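Section 5.1 Outputs to date
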Amino acid sequence: MITTLQLDWIKKINPNYRETLKDDEEIMWDTLWNFDECEWSEENAKTVRNCGMIPVEVDGLIFCALSGCGMDLMPIVIYTQLKLTGAIEYDEAMYIKNKSRNYVEAVIGKKHREELLNYINKHFDI
């Protein structure tokens, strides 16, 4: 299950949330994702950063924020979910399969795309 929090809600419970981000990063979208109520840990925060997202701790859970704009960054969200939980959903698998190879590789890189495709081919009949 994916839980999302609107940024306005985050601001209400943690008005200083931006201070937890690196100076050179900026949340460009209005949604933070949490996958399967994944808990905050330094290891999970490192995983989120390695996937190209920004980790934000809220009430002991790790939420993932996009850091970029100007294009559809959903491949980053899907890849992060796979790395944090070990699984993605059917709709996300279809998204990756239906997007062009060049596009997905431009967003997350060839290695990460291949990792997603290996998972998809093993777990889904698409």
